[in-house]
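Worked example

This section walks through a single chain of length 250. The input is the sequence exactly as stored; nothing has been trimmed or padded.
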Amino acid sequence: MDGLMNQMVKWRTYLSATAVVVFLAALGLMLVLSVSQARAELGFLGLEVQGINPKLAKVLDKGWSAGVLVKDVAVGEAGALAGFRRGDLIIKFARSRVRSFDDLLQSVVKTKPHNKIAVEVIRDGRTKILMLKLGKRPASWKVQKAAFHNYSDIGFTVVAINAKVKKRFSLPWGSVGLVVTLVDPKSGKVATGLNAGDIIVQANLKDVWHPDHLTRIIFEARNRKKSSILILIQSAKGFRYSLLPINKKK
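Given that input, the structure is written out below as tokens.
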């Protein structure tokens, strides 16, 4: 009996040690993956682009048969700071020829954030060199969770913009901020003209892309005895500033 008990103790010790080794191995693997993912972060252009196909080239009739067209430029990001404009045709990126979207993507992958490189574009029929310093993807562009908040004491609900929200509301490329999902029609306190589907981009001149940001600004304004905050609204009609009353309903 004593021999059997000793054998069981040995097995328990062995299994415990094995479990620790497995746990440490798994933890080590997680750390390696995390480091690899951090190192793999790509430079951020802040450009929406489109490759040229034969039909587009024929319509343009400018002798362009290859390259990548700039469709949109994100305000304040790397592309805008470098001077890119809609309609620029990217033909060379860091000395590498750009014939297609895949060519551009491969060149960007090879370039680390904060590196400054020359990009050759055709604008108004002339070649132009733009010096581009790649940035990192802003936090407002990396929202994963569609966090929402109901401001019942004011009369509206917002949700953070992630890929699913962008698709659901058919939001254009580059949309960042908080989408208004519901406005209480009985509330007379909501900002003038604020409608479901509008995007709150700023509050008191500060960018907001998570409900916590807006909540904090409202809280701080109330502490300063303010009755309203200034919000920047993006809608189908464009951008406009409006006052948002923040006094609680009685």
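What to look for: The longest helix spans residues 2-39.
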